[in-house]
């Protein structure tokens, strides 16, 4: 006897043997229990890159457990820049992108647990530096300076 694909739980099968007259001669009971299957962790981010001050949501809500067990989640991060997660547990967590001097990538790892077995998944977010205001201010200053000097000469 083979359980159907995806079966989880206990199956009890009882067999009865009878003789030619239809009288019972023996009874046997067999129980089958499949072992717990590990969850399958999945991780996503609301954006693959973030500028300073932007809020990013990390989610493990598409993680699954074939046995239907409730899952718990633990989040961790790695990289040269540390961010402050809203929580280190839960299917979804958030963080606000900090100011960085140069673009850097932060890797987040979520561990999904069914209370017995675990699985991990990772997601990366690229932290972008604050956009430069550019050189426009210098250009304006260089254009205005000669006019100011010219006016000063005329007044003198």
Can you describe what's shown?
The protein has 156 residues and is mostly beta strands. The protein has 2 domains: 1-34, no CATH class; 44-127, Sandwich (Immunoglobulin-like). It has 1 helix and 9 strands, in the order E-E-E-E-E-E-E-E-E-H. Strands 4-9-8-6 form a 4-stranded mixed sheet, with no helix packed on it. Strands 3-5-7 form a 3-stranded antiparallel sheet, with no helix packed on it. The N and C termini lie far apart (108 Å).
SS element count, helices: 1
**The CATH fourth-level homologous superfamily of the largest domain:** Immunoglobulins
Unreliable segments of 5+ consecutive residues: none
Q: What fraction strand?
A: 35-45%
Give the spatial strand order of the biggest sheet. 4-9-8-6
What is the fold named in CATH at topology level of the largest domain? Answer: Immunoglobulin-like
Percent of residues in helices: 10-25%
Keywords: Membrane, Transmembrane, Transmembrane helix
Domain Ig-like: 39-124
Pfam families: K319L-like_PKD
InterPro entries: GlyGly_CTERM (IPR020008), Ig-like_dom (IPR007110), Ig-like_fold (IPR013783), PKD/Chitinase_dom (IPR022409), PKD_dom_sf (IPR035986)
Identify the notable features of this structure and list them briefly:
3-stranded antiparallel beta sheet; 2 domains; 156 residues
């Amino acid at each position: 006897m083979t359980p159907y694909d995806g079966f989880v739980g206990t199956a009890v099968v009882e067999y009865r043997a009878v003789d030619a007259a239809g009288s019972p001669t023996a009874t046997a009971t067999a129980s089958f229990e499949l072992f717990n299957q590990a969850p399958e962790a999945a991780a996503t981010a609301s954006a693959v890159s973030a500028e300073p001050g932007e809020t990013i949501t990390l989610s493990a809500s598409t993680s699954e457990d074939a046995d239907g067990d409730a899952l718990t989640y633990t989040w961790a991060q790695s990289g040269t820049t540390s961010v402050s997660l809203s929580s280190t547990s839960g299917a979804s967590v958030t963080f606000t992108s900090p100011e960085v001097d140069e673009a850097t990538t932060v890797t987040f790892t979520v561990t999904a647990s069914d209370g017995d077995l675990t699985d991990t998944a990772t997601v990366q977010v690229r932290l972008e530096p604050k956009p430069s205001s550019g050189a426009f201010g210098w250009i304006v200053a260089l254009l205005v300076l000669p006019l100011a000097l010219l006016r000063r000469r005329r007044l003198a």
